[in-house]
Amino acid sequence: MATVAARLALQADAPVAAVGADPVRHRPRSLLRFITCGSVDDGKSTLIGRLLYDTKLICADQLAALEDDSRRHGTQGTDIDFALLVDGLAAEREQGITIDVAYRYFATAQRQFIVADTPGHEQYTRNMVTGASTADLAIILVDARKGVLTQTRRHSYLVQLLGIRQVVLAVNKMDLVGYDQARFDEIVSDYGAFARSIGIEACTALPVSGLRGDHITGPSAHMPWYAGPSLLAHLETVDVDVEAVQRRPLRLPVQWVNRPDQDFRGYAGQIAAGTVCPGDAVRVLPSGRNTTVTRIVTADGDLDAAVAGQSVTLCFADEIDCSRGDVIVRADEPAQVADRFEATIVWMAQEELLPGRPYWLKLATQTVTATIHGPKHQVNVNTLEHLAAKTLGLNAIGVATLSTDRPLVFEPYTGDRTLGGFILVDKLTHATVGAGMLHFALRRSQNVHWQALDVSREKRAGLKHQRPAVLWFTGLSGAGKSTIANLVEKQLAGLHRHTFLLDGDNVRHGLNKDLGFTDADRVENVRRVGEVARLMTDAGLIVITAFISPFRAERAMVRQMMAPGEFIEIFVDTPLAAAEARDVKGLYRKARAGQLRNFTGIDSPYEPPQDPEIHIDTTAISPEEAADRIVARLLDA
Amino acid sequence: MTPRTVGSPGTGPVRLTHLQRLEAEAIHIMREVVAEAERPVMLYSVGKDSAVMLHLARKAFFPAPPPFPLLHVDTTWKFRAMYELRDRMARASGMDLIVHRNPEALARNINPFEHGSALHTALWKTEGLKQALDRYGFDAAFGGARRDEEKSRAKERIFSFRSSSHRWDPKQQRPELWNLYNARKAPGESIRVFPLSNWTELDVWQYIGRENIPIVPLYFADLRPTVARDGLILMVDDERFPLAPGERPVLRQIRFRTLGCYPLTGAVPSDARTLPEIIRETLAATTSERQGRAIDQDQAGSMEKKKQEGYF
Questions:
Q1: What is the model's pLDDT at position A8?
Q2: What local confidence, expressed as pLDDT, does residue A70 receive?
């Protein structure tokens, strides 16, 4: 305790010097955000604890708590266990591991630092990706005794994937290899070859000991053979090219339209790239309208210029349509607009990615519906091999094609994190299930255009003297969907209506014969049926479909495809026990016997409609009565 | 106070200072909430962090006033000087001020002297906040918490979700990448949003100085009537303070690093009467700012527990 107090006293002057004589109007400092990554026992938390300690960011009361903790949970005998300082949550303290992203703050005279401490074990790839997404620099820790491990390669790949340009290789625990230069050189050479192979350009290697403090904030007496800067000195001076983003053309995603009264209309947002001045010609995407910036409004007065990173409000010379989700760009160097992309996707949810299912996609201030097609490949993050994959599970990384329901204004991620990085959100649970980085737009979306047709869907429907509609039957296997649907079609035919019945079993003999019964295949099955139904409504038909269609998300997707009011969801409600008792096709018996996998109601879920247009309780009315009611509802509508 | 010109054409790139970056980030966060939430509100506790947050909100939506009300979850035990500043700032901002006092706590006359800090905080603050959010149907609430304050805060997201019963589940936090915030939620769920997450205590003081933000005078040293209790120097702010037989308030030169309920907030001996003096003192300090808060220390892992139960 005495030595600790003495150290603190010695260092008390250092941060005061950081702000000089006038701490309010001190020399402005810059900000560096970095992440530390390493394997479980590489000593990450100890290293961060040491940085905080040596820059005097640990206060006496925290230190007292730390000493107390060190005695109870510590792994360093009577010494202070710095790891306990940064392992925040109670559960983690018990397990002795860091399980989430934690952010730490410290400052020196030159710079303010924000550290993302990210865990090293395999199941937490998503945390590392999260921490890396905002970092300018990455410290990759290697245990000098173990050298470059599988996890080191994985972390380096993720760092490179997230676009971090500056990498520091910290060879830690040098004290445990006798501060041996040959060992250090060997590791640096191993790592250098690997780093170059995955595209890491700038890498600085340092021999350190987090536990003993060698080369953390000052020189080390133990390693006279190393002449380079300490870790802290490197972090203080390393050039992160934040200005590069200012040299690029203007990109300003509009967050919010500021309209306090009739006389003022401003477009608020944070500049993602480039600079802007009053008088600049700009274009609003995706509409493509041009105008001129008249003012850059802030509470501190109008600005003559603003740069990437600032949050501002712009006013235009013309009253043009511009709202949240639009992107203001330099008129002569606009961003790209597309609705079909190739992207790298990192999956972050327990429930696996379902190709074809619609997810919310948020990119900058744009939120659209996106569907992801079957991945081209998954990346084995340990070997960097490409593996065939039909889906992506938790912490998997893959490359896939995705389509959006509306055009997105974007840039490739490698050039612009803001306009190239996106998150995927589950439409029902609202969880963030994935993140991605756009590579490029696919030519198909640029070259496949809608062909305008002279005969409209209204004209086709008019010839048939009817309004098109989709009668979408959903319910368990054996609920009576096909029986009732068949009766409905017979009645409609008798009334001279033009109909077509798409039956689940029949479609699986042809159009969808390549699909099975996994969740992913069920989603694709329903998507294709939805597209066919849409074409048929364009042709003026009344479409009747009889599919289990177990998931709400896909039924909602089909509803979205149709014109408002055309989609009529009919819930054929039969309790599982009743359907199983009927077992017309003998399928329940097989499923119960384990001969049939992924059977809805048995080992695959059914999500009943929450608000169907028509609810048929088959335990209360006959199929004929049900058909009468449906036809009456259709013709009334 | 920001320089009017941050960069002119042809003069090369401009490096933003860390305070400019933190300011821009906080403004971005506030605008995202207003664009995506239905009924946002700003929790206003009248402390220095609240002062900075309110100032940033006025900047974010300028020239419009911030499009949400201020909510003060009152305990009736704040320092008098806090109530004065609260009313003045609400008027100046042009925002509505909602003051909520838990009716149950009011009826039972809950106070820290007779009921202890744990019950006092649970009823007035934790329950009071839940009541206010439910009553007005707020689905997003800004709070001034910073990640450097306390270990469990260091892992909390900027957009932090609460179940319909206001609970925080540290294991179910949504990953937060880049500056993309997922604000989607089910009916009944709400979000606490922390625009100052990445600020440190020093940043807050320097920003207050740079922007001339009004703060409660108790942050500056002065001679004040005090008594020493359980290792804390407490200020006798009004006649409700129960003195032991023979106990007399002593005038001490003190100031506060953090402000809460006066019977629970310890002062520090200090001669810092100006902002530069406060900043120098903060830098040289060997205790963290929440050390004066009795409620953080009543049990180990204390703040994480309170947060899971719905404390801000």
A1: 31
A2: 58
Is residue A465 classed as helix, strand or coil in its secondary structure? coil
B residues 242-301 lying closer than 8 A (beta carbon) to A:
275-276, 279-280, 283-288, 291, 301
Domain count, chain B: 2
**Is pLDDT larger for residue B153 or for residue A394?**
A394
Helix B18-36 and helix B48-60, axial crossing angle in degrees, nearest 10 = 70
Closest CB to A311 among B28, B287, B288 = B28
CA-nearest of A353, A352, A451, A351 to A402 is A353
Number of domains, chain A? 4
Domain range spanning residue B66? 18-203
**pLDDT per position as a tens digit, A28-45:** 788 899 998 876 677 777
**Of A416, A443, A470, which closes a domain?**
A443
Question: Collapsing DSSP states into helix, strand and coil, what is residue A100?
Answer: coil
Catalytic residue among A220, A230, A482, A549: A549
Alpha carbon of A330: minimum distance to chain B alpha carbons (Å): 14
Tokens standing for residue A52: 């905080």
Interfacial A residues in 317-376 facing B (CB < 8 Å): 324, 348, 360, 362-365
Helix (H) or strand (E) holding A221: none
Residues A221 and A76 reside in one and the same domain: yes
Nearest CA among B98, B162, B104, B161 for reference residue B132: B98
Which residue in the block uniquely carries the two structure tokens 């929790």? B43
Same domain, B103 and B244: no
Give the whole-angstrom CA distance, residue A615 versus residue A626: 9
For residue B160, the surrounding DSSP H or E stretch is strand B159-162
CATH of the domain at B113: 3.40.50.620
